[in-house]
């Protein structure tokens, strides 16, 4: 099983990146542009649909005074209309939206009318709220997921694995009490998360919870998912009997648990990953497997001692569950790998972001749990089955209970990490460095009078990329123009124009900038370089993006 885990992790290294959340790909007017007259409307274009936030869009002039405006969201576009006349000078549009995966995103756009202002005093730091999830939300998420998996898993164990017979009824009562307590914890966690999600997504203070606009701005899934979790668990807990259940009751218990476990897959990161049906299905299977594993371990820790002290029913029950657990572990590894592949997408995402670090911690904890499970399955369980005397059987069962609870404790730690992963953005931050150009690049050379420039795109694929311009003279030495070069990116068909690329100087004659390519095709890169006070050659090259 450890080899399977490592093999699956290697798959992540060769996976293509998935869409983490909405990314701004174009603005009209462009960042830093100078216009002759003020535009009636400012347009922001993203690579996926976004959700508007009340009071999330503000426009300021150079003095920091707010300019009257209104905002409209249409699928992947944000339209900001200026509702009052503005004079010459610099304007700043500060925006905050919510991505399809539930993560808030924010930024600002600066442009000028007539000429840039000499001094700009815009409260960008105060206007854009923090987009990092609060720790309290992570704690509440953990409580909700622990309650959900324990309640559903213990209920499923009671109807699937416990033997029939009145002598097992005391164990059933203990498990039913556990299910009800876990259901209450899950309900508290999932319902308490709703107002915290509202404040997190909208970037508002706690006092905003008294405003109706705060609640109406949340996506319907933020209400529906917690409701389904609570209703499903209440159905399972209420139908769980004190004695061996009949077929109809067992179906109701399992149906309630399935509803509760499937609901969380319809919100969060899975809403932004593609293909959506595959990712949601994998997420549902992942939660089902996790509930069977964690809930089964908790149930074994509660009832194995009693069952083993009577006869061999404890060993038989554990053997039956252990057989299922092997399939559950395989399902967890496969579904977890697919989820990481679709959401993280690369080793860079695992090693260079907070999301990736937490994901690696989760993987390591799961490996520890698998190691304990392997020890239980192939060492302690056979020892329990081979015992004959009651005293030896009780002693062997006590050891197995302790290791089982240790395994469950590791899984609870996994859920602690999961609670913080749910609301953390998996965005991969692409840093521009001099060594960012390597294998898997697309390059073209342009001649700008006496300067030769090499344009390189790394990687030449849909998603985040780095575009680099390296300029040399006739002798092959680094060269500079009269001013810094300018690059403009547009799709050859004219459907998408990303505008000017913001370039950073990496050294003599080397400039680079980050871009997000929303679609494949042939992209035109317009290179403009003022070589003298009067000469400004402009050349265009084409780069193929897969």
From TrEMBL:
Q: How does it sit in the membrane?
A: Multi-pass membrane protein
Q: Tell me where in this chain the CopC domain is found.
A: 21-113
What subcellular compartments does it reside in? Answer: Cell membrane
* An example molecular function term from Gene Ontology annotations: copper ion binding
Q: Recite the UniProt keywords alphabetically.
A: Cell membrane, Copper, Membrane, Metal-binding, Signal, Transmembrane, Transmembrane helix
> Residues in domain Copper resistance protein D?
317-421
Q: Which InterPro entries match?
A: CopC/D, CopC_dom, Cu-R_CopD_dom, Cu-Rt/internalin_Ig-like, FixH, Ig-like_fold, Ig_E-set
Q: Where is the signal peptide?
A: 1-20
Cellular component aspect of the GO annotation = periplasmic space; plasma membrane
Sorted alphabetically, the Gene Ontology BP terms of this entry are: carbohydrate metabolic process; copper ion transport; response to copper ion
Q: Which residues cross the membrane?
A: 142-162, 182-203, 223-244, 251-267, 287-309, 321-343, 355-375, 396-422
What superkingdom heads the lineage?
Bacteria
Specify where it is mainly localized: membrane
The identity of this protein, by name, is Copper resistance protein CopC
